[in-house]
């Protein structure tokens, strides 16, 4: 369910991008500007807990960050790191702060909000573009 919601949010972002550009080459140029921040600010490479304020703010705007935390929660990663017997577990828990400690439904609500906002923005952009082109 989590990965499905994340995929729908990514699809909605793709639809918004497609609606906002005039031709496929512009969409191709926009792709790295959408993908790289999603990877860098997901919390997987650098924990959100350790990011500077601006990085943490950008991270909050990335659907993949919430999906990453939800999957970690569902797989019990915090419990595994705390009680798995590895000496690396406790330092990793400390570096990730409270990531993955909320209920799965909370993460789904975040992803659902992204879907609604991005789909509405896609629709509004299409309406604006169509009206502009009719003039």
Write a brief structural summary.
The chain has 135 residues and is an all-alpha fold. The protein has helices at residues 2-20, 24-40, 53-60, 63-74, 77-83, 89-96, 104-134.
Description:
With 135 residues, this protein is mostly helical. The protein has helices at residues 2-20, 24-40, 53-60, 63-74, 77-83, 89-96, 104-134. Helix 1 (2-20) runs antiparallel to helix 4 and helix 1 packs parallel to helix 7 (104-134). The longest helix is centred in the last third of the chain and has 31 residues, at 104-134. It starts with a helix and ends with a helix.
Our count of helices gives: 7
Described by the principal axes of the CA atoms, the overall outline is elongated
Instruction: Summarize the amount of helix as a percent range.
Output: over 70%
Low-confidence sequence ranges = none
Mean pLDDT metric: 92
N-to-C CA distance: 43 Å
The description of the largest β-sheet is: none
How many distinct beta strands?
0
Could you say which structural class the secondary elements and strand pairing correspond to?
mainly alpha
The whole-angstrom Rg is 18 Å
Task: Give the oligomeric state.
Answer: single chain
- Please report which band the strand proportion falls in: under 5%, 5-15%, 15-25%, 25-35%, 35-45% or over 45%: under 5%
User: What is the H-and-E element order?
Assistant: HHHHHHH
List the helices and strands and how they pair.
Blueprint: H1 2-20, H2 24-40, H3 53-60, H4 63-74, H5 77-83, H6 89-96, H7 104-134
Helix pairs in contact: 1-4, 1-7, 4-7, 5-6
């Amino acid at each position: 369910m989590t990965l499905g919601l994340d995929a729908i949010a990514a699809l909605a972002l793709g639809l918004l991008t497609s609606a906002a550009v005039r031709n496929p080459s512009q969409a191709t140029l926009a792709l790295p500007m959408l993908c790289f921040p999603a990877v860098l600010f997901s919390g997987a490479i650098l924990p959100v807990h350790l990011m500077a304020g601006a990085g943490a703010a950008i991270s909050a705007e990335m659907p993949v960050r919430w999906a990453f935390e939800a999957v970690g929660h569902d797989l019990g990663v915090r419990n595994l790191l705390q009680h798995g017997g590895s000496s690396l577990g406790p330092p990793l828990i400390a570096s990730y702060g409270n990531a993955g400690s909320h209920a799965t439904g909370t993460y789904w609500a975040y992803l659902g909000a992204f879907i609604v906002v991005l789909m509405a923005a896609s629709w509004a952009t299409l309406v604006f573009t169509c009206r502009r082109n009719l003039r």
